[in-house]
Design a protein that fits this description.
Elements lengths: L8 H11 L8 E9 L2 E3 L2 E4 L3 E12 L2 E12 L20 E15 L2 E10 L19 E10 L6 E7 L6 E12 L5 E12 L19 E10 L2 E3 L2 E12 L16 E12 L16
Antiparallel strand pairs: 1-4, 1-15, 2-3, 4-5, 5-6, 6-7, 7-8, 8-9, 9-10, 10-11, 11-12, 12-14, 13-14, 14-15
Length: about 290
């Protein structure tokens, strides 16, 4: 997958959003850590061995809206140097390799039973891959996306998201999601989800000599991602084991290794750990009874 160079749009928007937040607003902040068997992004296998994905974010109320800024990263946990079986976003040159950093900023606000969200994400790849055995992504792939989401507070919680690469690809990725939580017991639920992806201008150009970047082999339906998770709490932490089944339609989403280019379905999963300062808020203790 190819991308284009990153610009200053993400930095400018973050600064503008922070400047718009009232000084007295109470911030909510949190950290997340995902430990997954592979890194699958929009149906594409970017790393086919274990990864760690830390993230941090802070959210402020701004009138009826909320403003969130944060950052997400991918770390290749192993040294992936088998050119026949390994896909490594970092190039496979070493273990515990910091492969990707995505800063983002967004604004969300409710309209009746609808939630509207708009934001911007930067994609930054810090590795020098001149001597990498497994390709990967470096600074030549840096880019910026703007996005919008519409979520409905109705059964199945449907959400439609549109991401547009404003730099070199100049094409859109569209994703439709539904989700539902099934109670398994008084304290345990099973969260089910389905996401369908579509490429609209992010397919490979017809002219193979073109320098245009692309994410998918073509345009249209790219993949279906079915997921199941079981969230529970342990003290102040939220822990969610999760499993995904990706059914690929686009030729690029069917790739699972350099020697396996036509997989109809692939499994990946792991565990997500989360904490936010909201989980530490406790009710004020009741005042002691007055002595008689």
């Amino acid at each position: 997958m190819q991308r284009a160079k990153v610009g200053g749009a993400a930095v400018l928007m973050v600064g503008a959003l922070i400047g718009a937040v009232p000084a007295q607003a109470q911030a909510t902040f949190g950290v997340d850590l995902d430990l997954f068997s592979s890194y699958v992004w929009r149906g594409l296998s970017l790393t086919n061995k274990p990864v760690a994905e830390p993230a941090a974010w802070v959210s402020f109320p701004a009138g009826n809206a909320s403003v969130t800024v944060g950052g997400w990263a991918n770390i290749d946990l192993g040294k992936y140097d088998d050119i026949n079986d390994d896909i490594s976003e970092s190039g496979g040159t070493s273990a515990f390799n910091f492969a990707e950093f995505d800063p983002y900023a967004e604004v969300s606000f409710p309209v009746g039973r609808t939630t509207l969200t708009g934001g911007v994400t930067g994609y930054i790849y810090p590795n020098d891959l001149d001597a990498a055995p497994n390709g990967g992504l470096d600074s030549e792939a840096n880019t910026v996306e703007i996005y919008g989401k519409v979520g409905l507070d109705v059964p199945l919680s449907p959400e439609l998201s549109v991401y547009y690469d404003v730099d070199k690809i100049k094409g859109a990725y569209i994703e439709a999601n539904v989700s539902h939580s099934l109670p398994a017991s008084e304290k345990i639920s099973i969260d089910l989800g389905a996401a369908a992806g579509f490429s609209a201008g992010q397919g490979e150009p017809d002219d193979l000599l073109s320098d245009e970047s692309f994410n998918f082999a073509g345009d249209g339906f790219t993949h279906l991602d079915l997921s199941a998770g079981v969230p529970f709490t342990a003290g102040v932490f939220s822990i969610t084991p999760v499993l995904h089944l990706v059914i690929g339609s686009d030729e690029a989403t069917k790739v699972t290794s350099p020697s396996n280019l036509d997989t109809g379905a692939k499994l990946w999963g792991g565990v997500s750990l989360s904490w936010s300062n909201e989980t530490e808020e406790e009710e004020e203790p009741e005042a002691p009874a007055s002595p008689e």
